[in-house]
Design brief:
heterodimer, A: mainly alpha, MetI-like fold, three-stranded antiparallel beta sheet, 17 helices, B: mainly alpha, two-stranded antiparallel sheet, 1% strand
Chain lengths: 424, 460
């Protein structure tokens, strides 16, 4: 071979090796893009949401004047009718004696959340002995104040935060007096939805999700496992069984919103199940998670070796006894794993719930399966649409709670799988 | 005396029935259970089924159908001129009657009549519940009598119970089929009503979509146009962007994980990538609408481009990221399924690893990969929350990814959230769109599953 050919070959070889390296880098870069996006998503949501777990509160010295209260402290109606707003106003004006103009007074009162009235009422109801004395109470601040406290550092212009200069001065004064502090946001976990960001919480949505998932679990686990057992152990191999199989596989890939249409047309319009209720939500999510549970349960049953069945049949067990006393107990952990994963999907599902009216603005925490309610992901959707800035951090915080539940559920599934995994 | 109490009573009766059956079996065994055909518990279960299952089935049917039956009876008792009212008005009337029965305040012209009907409604409801109790208890008594008569030492209780168990399992598996039938019927039924008002050709080929109907006849500009082409185009645009993101990234990462990565790296990377598929779509929607869309808009403005704040690009991009794990996990499976011999043959001829992958493995795995991509497309088309939150509502017919477009799923949600009237084309249009969506995704799924299965068989 002459030198030119060798040269050419070596050149070609170098090109081929360079291409090899490039190809590997494409793979690395693809994975990196996916991971970077994942990180970006989490960091973004956590950095937006963590601040919602704290809420600004203002300490006021309220004088619970005896004359404002009814004689009979036990009468709940009269105790409700007490003018707590007036009491709060008076204590505010005492705090800022220089405010005399009506307009300023109103601006001052706006620093306090409209929910402060109820906070004070509950406080008084909790220890009625305090009536007649002056007490120090922490009352929730308005969401504009809250946003100012949380974001003043990264925003030069305070007026952009919907506060007047005068109000900012008052806030700074309250802050130097240590009467304005960030406290743990209890309201977020203990109350239902509200139009005011500082009073909005996820308890209603969480309860709604919980009730919905209870219905889903009670229906989809027995039905799904039953269907899987039938298809895997009892079904004859014929066209009908094939049809059921194809059906299940296809249902697993039907868009979730279609299940919402089904729920609306069949459950609500035809059977008259109450709209917006966890019951109908649970029914729809049951149909949606069934294919997942059936497919995963079948895989687990299939993995139980035939020797187990043959041993049981050999000592005289009937077919049903073999399945229910030997195969199912061995497959149960795997079936539970599949069910938990299905429940996780159901917990995060939003679209079908929009169809069946679980998007209503519900303030009360639902107490039964037929009350109207929302679910946690739907609450996220509703808050994401709200223009108030306070809702943005609450949306992120609600997402954090949702992701937290999903992590716990998936961790449980992984633990179950690891703990009871059989290598036959 | 309500239905819930009846349910709990039936559960209790079931337990009693079990004990009764077992006791009866012992009693007829002449002192030794060796004389029995089946285990005592089988007799117990047999008696329990006989006692409560018929009653429970009746209870379930009753709960589903009684409110409709009551309405029918109520309508039949109305004066004839009211019976002749159109369906929608009759529905409103029944609603009022129900509210009156619940003791809520009602408004309208015929308060007196509605009050009266409300009372009648309560009466009917009470009668219906009484009848249900009576029938259920009668069924239980009949079951007990039957069990008493039949349970004897030679009775083959086990085979009977096992037959019932298998029947129950068959019922479970039927529910999957019933779901499909329910989906098909519910969308087709409402779609037919829709196509009676709007011709099919206008729906499939019309270029204008504005589903707002005029409330008054003389209103301007809201005649309602139901040409779905802009929706299909928007759906395709967003899904297309998603696939442009998801296919290369998903495919390359699965190739890297299947062929290059060490076992340890793979065992970490794979579950981490799967997290992307586990995040609820509403989270992606929030992220797309509040973070990605503004980023893209600002970036576009910096380049001097006109970018809508609800651009198709933002929704498509985020959707693409969500779909990566679907593409990568299926391609991972099919790439791993390519036989070793093919790889080694290629290496033996002196090919580098990447040449083997590009020229041997991917062509061999192509059908499987195509199947996976088809499944991913069907998922992108049916994806709802990301587009509801991040894509627009205005039906633009455009191919520009920087403009706002709307999709089929967005329109279904907007048409059905809020007040619904099941006689206006606006509400029914959602079901027609649902029908199209169902058929398209079904077709894609069937093709994809078929391709993937055929491919698996090829190398087994």
């Amino acid at each position: 071979m002459d030198n030119r050919t060798i040269d050419l070959m070596q050149k070609r070889l170098r090109r081929r090796y360079a291409r090899e390296t490039r190809f590997q880098w494409y793979g690395r870069i693809s994975i990196a893009i996916a991971l970077i996006f994942l990180m970006f998503l989490f960091v973004n949501i956590f950095s937006k949401g963590y601040s919602a777990f704290q809420q600004s509160a203002i300490m006021l010295t309220v004088n619970l004047d005896e004359s404002e209260f009814p004689q009979d402290r036990k009468d709940p109606g009269a105790m409700m009718a007490v003018d707590y707003g007036g009491l709060i106003k008076q204590s505010l004006y005492r705090q800022f004696p220089e405010v005399t103009e009506r307009k300023d007074k109103r601006a001052l009162f706006q620093l306090i959340s409209p929910g402060a009235v109820y906070a004070l009422r509950d406080q008084v109801a909790a220890n009625p002995d305090s009536i007649g004395n002056s007490i120090d109470v922490w009352l929730p601040a308005n969401d504009d104040v809250d946003m100012y406290i949380k974001h003043v550092a990264d925003q030069a212009d305070a007026t952009a935060m919907r506060l007047s200069e005068q109000q900012v001065v008052w806030i700074e004064k309250l802050r130097t007096d240590q009467r304005l502090e960030k406290k743990f946001n209890r309201i977020f976990f203990t109350s239902g939805d509200s139009r005011e960001p500082e009073l909005a919480g996820i308890r209603g949505a969480l309860t709604g999700s919980f009730l919905t998932l209870v219905v889903t679990l009670l229906l989809s686990f027995p039905i799904g496992v039953g269907a899987a057992i039938y298809l895997e152990e009892f079904a004859p191999k014929n066209r009908w069984t094939d049809l059921v199989e194809v059906n299940v596989n296809n249902l697993a890939a039907v868009p979730s919103i279609i299940f919402g249409l089904l729920g609306l047309a069949v459950f609500i319009n035809f059977f008259g199940v109450p709209r917006s209720a966890p019951l109908v939500g649970g029914l729809v999510l049951t149909l949606m998670t069934l294919p997942t549970i059936i497919i995963s349960s079948r895989a687990v049953i299939k993995a139980v070796p035939p020797s187990i069945r043959e041993a049981a049949l050999g000592v005289g067990a009937s077919h049903v006894q073999t399945v229910f006393s030997h195969v199912v107990p061995l497959a149960l952990p795997g079936m539970l794993t599949g069910t938990i994963i299905g429940m996780g999907r159901a917990l995060g599902e939003t679209a079908p719930l929009l169809m069946i009216g679980m998007v209503a603005f519900v303030v009360d925490v639902p107490t039964s399966f037929t009350d109207s309610s929302t679910a946690l992901p739907v609450q996220i959707y509703l808050w994401a649409d709200s223009p108030e800035r306070g809702f943005e951090e609450r949306t992120s915080a609600a997402i954090m709670v949702l992701l937290g539940f999903l992590v716990v559920m998936n961790a449980a599934a992984v633990y179950l799988r690891k703990r009871f995994e059989h290598k036959w | 005396m309500n239905t819930t109490n009846l349910f709990f009573l039936l559960c209790l009766l079931g337990v009693l029935g079990f004990l009764f059956g077992r006791h009866r079996a012992y009693a007829t065994s002449h002192g030794s259970i060796k004389n029995l055909n089946s285990l005592p518990s089988h007799y117990g279960m047999y008696a329990m089924t006989l006692t409560v299952i018929p009653a429970l089935v009746l209870l379930a049917c009753w709960a589903m159908l009684s409110s409709q039956a009551i309405e029918k009876v109520l309508i039949l008792e109305l004066p004839p001129e009211m019976q002749a009212l159109p369906r929608a008005e009759l529905g409103l009337l029944i609603n009022d009657v129900r509210n009156a029965a619940l003791g809520q305040s009602i408004a309208g012209d015929d308060v007196q009549l509605i009050r009266q009907l409300g009372k009648r409604y309560l009466e009917l409801e009470r009668d219906s519940t009484r009848m249900l109790w009576l029938l259920c208890l009668a069924l239980c008594a009949g079951g007990v009598a039957w069990a008493w008569h039949h349970i004897q030492a030679r009775h083959p209780a086990r085979t009977r119970v096992e037959r019932i168990v298998v029947l129950a399992l068959i019922t479970c598996s039927l529910i999957a089929v019933l779901t499909t039938i329910g989906i098909v019927l519910s969308v087709i039924f409402e779609s037919i009503l829709f196509f009676k008002q709007i011709p099919l050709t206008q729906f499939l080929f019309g270029l204008e979509w504005s589903p707002q109907m005029a409330i008054r006849a003389d209103q301007v500009g809201s005649s309602g146009a139901f040409g779905a082409v802009p929706l299909f185009a928007g759906t395709l645009l967003i899904s297309g962007i998603a696939m442009v993101v998801a296919v290369p990234i998903g495919l390359m990462s699965s190739i890297y994980m299947a062929e290059y990565a060490s076992r340890r790296v793979r065992s970490i990377l794979k579950p981490v990538l799967e997290i992307l598929a586990g995040i609820p779509t509403v989270v992606y929607g929030f992220f797309a609408a509040l973070t990605v869309a503004p980023l893209i808009r600002d970036f576009g403005h910096a380049l001097g481009l006109q970018v809508a704040s609800e651009s198709a690009l933002a929704a498509g991009l985020v959707m693409g990221i969500m779909i990566i794990p679907f593409v990568s996990s299926i391609s991972d499976d099919v790439i791993s399924a390519v036989p070793r011999a093919m790889r080694e043959g290629s290496y033996g001829l002196g090919a580098t690893q990447s040449e083997t992958i590009r020229l041997v493995i991917i062509p061999a795995a192509l059908p499987g990969i195509v199947g996976g991509v088809l499944l991913a497309i069907s998922r992108a088309i049916g994806e709802t929350m990301i587009v509801v939150m991040a894509a627009g509502l205005s039906a633009n017919l455009t191919a520009n990814p920087l403009e706002a477009v709307t999709t089929v799923t967005v329109q279904i949600v907007t048409l059905l959230v809020g007040d619904q009237e099941f006689d206006s084309p606006k509400t029914l249009a959602a079901f027609a769109l649902g029908l199209v969506l169902f058929l398209v995704t079904l077709l894609l799924n069937i093709i994809a599953l078929h391709v993937v299965r055929r491919y698996r068989e090829q190398y087994e």
